[in-house]
Amino acid sequence: MQDRVTATLTAIIVDDEKLAQDELAYLIKDFPDIEVIGSARHGLEAVELIQKLEPDLVFLDVQMPGLDGMGVIRKLREQDIPLPYFVMATAYDQYAVEAFRWEALDYVLKPVDKERLTVAVDRARKAVNDRAKAAQPEPASPKPALQRSKLLVRSNQRNFIVDAQDVVYATIDDGLITVVASNLEGQSNYRTIEELQSNLDPDTFWRVHRSYLVNIHRIKEVIPWFKSSFQLRMDDKKQTEIPVSRVQTKRLRALLKL
Are 76 and 22 in contact (CB under 8 A)? Predict the structure, then answer.
């Protein structure tokens, strides 16, 4: 999601009716600071797109075949995916209470009225700006007293001790953390990426994506990617390519003077 306080808000439109998608996209064109970066026709496609593009805002139809709008939010929560702000859109007002129970930002009725949409967009701007302000880094504080220089990595039923500086990156999938070092790949005994990161040198290890922690000294190449974002090619044996989240793109540009 966007990390600048006054910037373009990225949005996705989710509706199983193409005409409804087109009508909403047409109305959104009158808001120059809203950029529609994708659309989905059903709930499962929406979950995948939100996970991939990390939009600030999602205009989400409530009633869809298969996974409905509420199900999309529920699925994202179950997968512990950072949530964008949701503006629910439907022809039926009886879903409003449930929408707000799932912490939807706003709720608009179809056909969408331009003035009502303006209210929802204003609310989204404020919410995104408030979130961005809250995420601004605090003044530098002393490094934690304990920083691990060695890590335990389990591989082939053996426990290896790895120098932290030899770690290229770590990733988490389904609750399991994999550590990739220069000559070894295995599982960590840490439970979360946050816990692992807190025990390492913050000047060296950077959380570039919710699922990846990288050693900035082991970045081999920066690859331009989708919608002005980037991927990092690491210098491990597999030349692994790691996505940089939209939130971290600004830091990458500053770090490498892009």
Answer: no
| Tokens standing for residue 119 | 């209210």
Q: What is the value of pTM for the model shown?
A: 0.55
Please give the structure tokens belonging to residue 150.
């060695």
pLDDT of 210-254, one tens digit each?
Answer: 889 999 999 999 988 766 678 899 999 999 999 888 778 877 877
Contact (Cβ atoms closer than 8 angstroms) between residue 98 and residue 86: no
Question: What is the Cα–Cα distance from 74 to 58, expressed in whole angstroms?
Answer: 14
For residue 109, the number of C-alpha atoms closer than 13 Å in the C-beta half-sphere is: 6
| Dist CA 146 CA 201 (whole Å) | 9
Q: What is the largest CA-CA distance in the chain?
A: 64
Q: CATH code for 9-135?
A: 3.40.50.2300
* CATH 3.40.140.10 matches 150-256: no
What does the pLDDT read at residue 237? 92
Per the model's pLDDT, the better-predicted residue between 133 and 217 turns out to be 217
Residue spans of the domains in the chain: they are: 9-135, 150-256
